[in-house]
Specification:
The complex is a heterodimer of chains A (406) and B (231). With 406 residues, chain A is mostly helical. In chain A, strand 2 and strand 3 form a beta hairpin. The mean pLDDT of chain A is 97. In chain A, strands 2-3 form a two-stranded antiparallel sheet. Chain A has one domain. In chain A, helix 4 packs across helix 14. Chain A contains 14 helices and three strands. Chain B has a single domain, classed as Up-down Bundle (Ferritin). Helices cover 69% and strands 3% of the residues of chain B. In chain B, strands 1-3 form a two-stranded parallel ribbon. In chain B, helix 2 packs antiparallel against helix 3 and helix 3 packs antiparallel against helix 6. The two termini of chain B are 33 Å apart. The chains are: A mainly alpha (406), B mainly alpha (231). The interface between A and B is large, with 38 and 40 residues.
């Protein structure tokens, strides 16, 4: 499918009434975990689109561009409201958080498995192990606070066990800046992968930034605070991968194109008929928004969109599916990786006076909530919470001393 | 139609370094570039980078002319922008052919070309991102200034390529360089002269016009005035 050949829904027809913006939420007890992850991802994609559009708006006073951005941005807001309101009110922030981490694990792993550029794949693998660890920490908090089982949410589609321990993920800010792809040589799929993961991680960062104060329990507030700082690192890490050479209008076109690709992807795999209808509608809306962006690019930069876009959408949709073996392989091979400037290095190669250790000493001074949550849960239920459906942890040092299973 | 924005699908290749990632299969090195273009006495990898930068400037020039031709309110300027845009497109073809004849890849995007693309895209963006507060005449002049700046670099590039040709040993490559410069340089001179001359004319026209100083001139009057420039 080449979206440039499609007309899509005109942006002027995309506004809907308040009732339409407030659809019936899914049932958290019945929902397919991957429907939840699709909702979480597409909310993040819309948020990024909206915030990018606002930034663009603030960098121009060209009325025509500003007005067209305002139109498409309002339509994005419509889409964001519809998508985010699919989350039910009885799904607690912590349950939503576990959904966010399931997105982070299975989206990142899927992207890495399909990523053509080895440096981008490395960036995905690196952060994958960290988000994987966050899922384990939040699952333990879930059990600690309410005695609940996180597999009721993940449905055992994603394993729950330690990744690169969060306590060692805290890096000096300068070591989270990576290199970037070259906009002229980048594989179209790579560009879409990077834009998708940036949006997803950014939404996770935003979510944790905002929800930490809603908890009464100090351990929960501490855990959200600590992991929110890692999400800041991840947004820096992934945001680095984008080539800054692209103009504002080209970036706008790429944003719209990625949204087309993702709604098309969600449509291919959605099992909930009602929500599938939403993905279908939003795909049509995004094609209409893409056409507006393409017209702006053509008119103001003299660039034919076909010059910079692939001839058709990638034939493989972004898919939420189990990635257990892949995650285990990355765990087995990359758990000891750290970063040194823009490079990835084994921990043993970092000199003793590296800024990593200084930063670690500063932030972990006085205790670390991500460690504390495991200790507290272990003290309460005499084991930690894990869900290892595929056997022992591939890293011996990270096996549960009690070797028990939730 | 020549390539105006090289992409992976077009066969684009580039150098990689710690900040710019390029897939290994499409990464080139100075050694590879030098091996393809063997010229005694010259830094051949640098020449490959330079040709890529010159080509990128012509490609960006084509985009610039398309853009200003669409947005100008003056039919004479529009005609010029269209004509120069077509000539610039031919310059792209000529440079592509020159690079191919010298053993290079026209879709090699050198670091120098990245710098050029960065400058040229900002030059073009400057003609419209901040145009909301400009009256029509000022907006027209901003577009003309972008053309003048772009043509200044363009002219310098072709002058340099002409000088480079004199350093090449006798043979097919030198002939190819000389022919390319001969085909293009006169048009580049015309573009630059026209931009310089037109900027001066339009500046004087506005300086001598009482209407331009009158606050509250109606949009229709301003469009008519711009439309009537040079006619």
């Amino acid at each position: 499918m080449n979206p440039l050949d499609q007309k899509g829904m005109p942006v002027a027809d995309q506004f809907r009434n308040w009732s339409d913006l407030n659809p019936e939420p899914y049932d958290k007890r019945e929902v397919d975990p991957y429907t939840r992850t699709r909702v979480i991802l597409m909310n993040g994609i819309e948020v990024e689109s909206i915030m990018f559009s606002h930034e663009f708006h603030r960098h121009t006073d060209n009325l025509e561009i500003r007005q067209k951005l305002a139109m498409s941005r309002r339509a994005d807001q419509v889409q964001q409201k519809v998508v985010n309101n699919l989350n039910p009110g009885d799904q607690t922030p912590l349950e939503t958080t576990i959904g966010y981490e399931q997105v982070a694990v299975d989206l990142t792993a899927w992207l890495a498995r399909h990523e053509p550029d080895p440096m981008i794949k490395q960036a995905l693998d690196f952060a994958l192990l960290e988000d994987f660890d966050h899922l384990y920490r939040y699952a333990n908090l879930y059990e600690l606070l309410g005695g609940k089982d996180a597999t009721e949410l993940t449905q055992q589609l994603t394993e729950i066990m330690p990744g690169r321990p969060t306590v060692v993920e805290h890096r000096h800010p300068m070591d989270d800046v990576r290199g970037h792809y070259n906009t002229n040589t980048v594989d179209p799929l790579t560009r879409l992968h990077v834009m998708t993961i940036v949006a997803g991680e950014q939404q996770t960062m935003n979510y944790y930034m905002n929800h930490s104060p809603e908890f009464m329990e100090p351990i929960a507030r501490g855990l959200y605070t600590e992991i929110a700082m890692i999400e800041e690192q991840h947004v820096t890490h992934y945001g680095s991968l984008l080539d800054p050479l692209d103009s504002w209008l080209k970036q706008l076109v790429f944003h719209e194109y990625n949204e087309v690709y993702l709604y098309w992807s969600m449509l291919q795999q959605e099992t909930d008929r009602r929500i599938k209808g939403i993905w279908e509608l939003h795909l049509d809306m995004e094609i209409g928004q893409l056409q507006v962006a393409c017209d702006l690019l053509r008119r103001f930069e003299g660039v034919e969109p076909a010059e910079i876009l692939p001839k058709e959408l990638p034939d493989t949709p972004v898919t939420f599916e189990p990635n257990k073996q892949y995650v285990r392989e990355v765990l087995a091979n990359q758990i000891e990786l750290r970063t040194d400037g823009v490079d990835y290095v084994p921990l043993e190669e970092l000199p003793k006076d590296h800024r990593y250790f200084g930063y670690q000493a500063t932030v972990n001074d006085g205790g670390t909530p991500t460690e504390l949550v495991i200790e507290q849960n272990r003290a309460k239920v005499q084991r930690e919470f894990r869900d290892q459906t595929e056997g022992d942890h591939p890293v011996v040092d990270l096996r549960d001393p009690a070797d028990t299973k939730a | 139609m020549p390539v105006l924005t090289p992409t992976k699908d077009d066969g684009a290749v580039a150098k990689a370094n710690e900040v710019v990632y390029v897939e290994p299969s499409i990464t080139v090195t100075d050694e590879v570039l030098a091996a393809r273009l063997e010229v005694t006495g010259l830094n051949t990898a640098f020449v490959a980078d330079l040709l890529s930068a010159c080509l990128t400037h012509e490609r960006c020039g084509t985009h610039l002319y398309r853009s200003v031709a669409t947005r100008t309110n003056n039919p004479i300027l529009q005609r010029r922008y269209q004509d120069f845009g077509e000539e610039t497109l031919r310059h792209v073809e000529i440079l592509e052919a020159l690079i191919v004849s010298s053993g290079g890849n026209p879709n090699y995007v050198s670091p120098m070309a990245r710098a050029v693309e960065g400058q040229d895209s900002k030059l073009l963006e400057a003609t419209f991102l901040a145009s909301g507060g400009l009256d029509l005449m000022t907006a027209e002049m901003a577009m003309l200034d972008a053309v003048l700046l772009a043509e200044t670099i363009d002219n310098a590039n072709w002058t340099t390529l002409g000088q480079l040709a004199t350093q090449l040993p006798d043979g097919d490559l030198r002939t190819a360089f000389e022919q390319a410069v001969t085909q293009v340089k006169a048009e580049e001179d015309e573009h630059l002269d026209w931009a310089l001359d037109t900027k001066a004319k339009l500046t004087m026209l506005q300086a001598q016009s009482s209407m331009m100083a009158a606050a509250g001139a109606k949009m229709e009057e301003m469009i008519d005035r711009v439309r009537g420039w040079l006619s």
